From TrEMBL:
GO molecular function terms noted in the UniProt entry: cysteine-type peptidase activity
Organism this protein belongs to: Brassica carinata
Protein's name according to its UniProt entry: Ubiquitin-like protease family profile domain-containing protein
Any Pfam family the entry gives: Peptidase_C48
Family membership noted in the UniProt record: Belongs to the peptidase C48 family.
Amino acid sequence: MKFTDASLAPYVNAYAMALPFMIRNFFNVSMDTSKFSIKIVSEGFPQVLKIEDSGVYALKLIECHAMRIVDLTKLSKEKIAIIREKLAVDIFSELQ
């Protein structure tokens, strides 16, 4: 399934409304609490097909951004499955 702005908007509208209040209250600052505008960037970014992969995608996107890698076309669902397994092994090894 390819997510679009229209298909995701209902899911993120609650956050767009709540986030300004959360920021104002958490940081104890005076700010406009109007609903944030939302632009969902989906073109050129891999789509999460399984919810359990969303954290793995997030970690890899942060890592790619830190290394200034902008071509994310090679980040496929097959590679994400392998990366998820490697991360699980790394975490398990750290806890032993």
